Amino acid sequence: MAETYIDPSRENFEVFKSLPRDRPIHMLNLIKFRDRAEYPEGHPNHDKGLTGREAYAIYKQAFQALVKDSGSAMVWHAPMECVVTGPQGEWDEAFVMGYPDAGAFFAMVKDEAYARDALPHRTAAVADSRLIRFRGV
After folding, report:
1. Cβ count near 108 (within 10 Å)
2. What's the DSSP call for residue 39?
3. Model confidence over 70-81: pLDDT tens digits?
4. How many Cβ atoms are within 10 Å of 63's Cβ, its own excluded?
5. CA torsion angle 110 93 70 15 (round to 10)
6. Are 93 and 31 in contact (CB under 8 A)?
């Protein structure tokens, strides 16, 4: 079975942190959802039967509410239709988030509200992902 990725490795995050922090960045998100969201026992959504897609929708709503005042915004999102090059079904969703600078991204991931209100839904929803940084335009 191929290796899956939910969170960044320490090495990859160190590279991210070493790049310039004072210019706009775009983050390409490739997401593969779990069939059923896997919330930990004790979470209000544990055993509610949510799909990974439903849990991720909760994550995106909470996430976008947290970053809206930072100048961060969805740059591109559209429904996937088919894969032309590569295996079908590898990704369920793709989108690009724009941040005014890397500092806005760091502030978001360090925000206690992100850890409390958004991240548990992402963790429950995602079976595999890629997060790729590009220089913003």
Report:
1. 18
2. P
3. 999 999 999 999
4. 20
5. 50
6. yes
How far, in whole angstroms, is CA 53 from its chain's centroid? Answer: 12
Strand partners of residue 77: 95
- Predicted TM-score (pTM) of the model is 0.92
- Report in angstroms the alpha-carbon separations of 25 from 32, 60, 110, 126: 23, 19, 18, 23
Mean pLDDT computed over 88-109: 95
Tokens of 101: 């600078």
Contacts of residue 81, Cβ cutoff 8 Å, sequence gap at least 6: none
Nearest by Cα to 60 from 20, 92, 16: 92
**Residue where the block lists tokens 């947290």:** 66
| 1 pLDDT above the threshold of 70 | no
State the chain's mean pLDDT as an integer. 95
